[in-house]
Amino acid sequence: MIGTEGTFAPFSYHDDNDNLVGYDVEVSEALAKELGVKVKFVEVKWDSLIAGLDSDKYDLVTNQVAITAERKNMIFQFHIHTLIQQLSLKKIIQKSLK
To answer: ∠ CA(55), CA(12), CA(63), 5° rounding?
Structure first.
């Protein structure tokens, strides 16, 4: 289960048919597919996101959570945009070396 707000376009928001969509949703669904698991999103208010993670309401948060000094030591925290850029760059470099 993944905690998110569902109110922050273009990352996670509701489309005209009230479906949860956006960049974070698509990346999470692609990762779940790769891992062979189903994903379920739990929408909560911003104030409750970290508390819900700490109380095991969900396994991770995808909601543009900035790294702060207070959150720095939380094991869930990494910057997915940096990760995606690194993976993409690695593929480009590997192709150019061939």
So the answer is: 40
